[in-house]
Amino acid sequence: xxxxxxxxxxxxxxxxxxxxNMNGAHFLCGGIGISLEDMTIWVDLxxxxxxxxxxxxxxxxxxxxxxxxxxxxxxQF
Length: 77
Description:
Blueprint: E1 18-20, E2 26-34, E3 41-47, E4 53-58, E5 66-68
Antiparallel strand pairs: 1-2, 1-5, 2-3, 3-4
């Protein structure tokens, strides 16, 4: 399957997704928020193994990460 450049998904699809950074670290998206001060979208990261909160980062910092949506392995929140 190839995605067209104009394709998009609802941002809520990220919740519960498996996120893998460029160093191979695995996280789960625990939630998404927006800073009303500067309209920055933030992603709450949870450790994929412990499911404990790890950190929150601006969404533009995950643009080079790998994402797996709706993974049955990790379950939904």
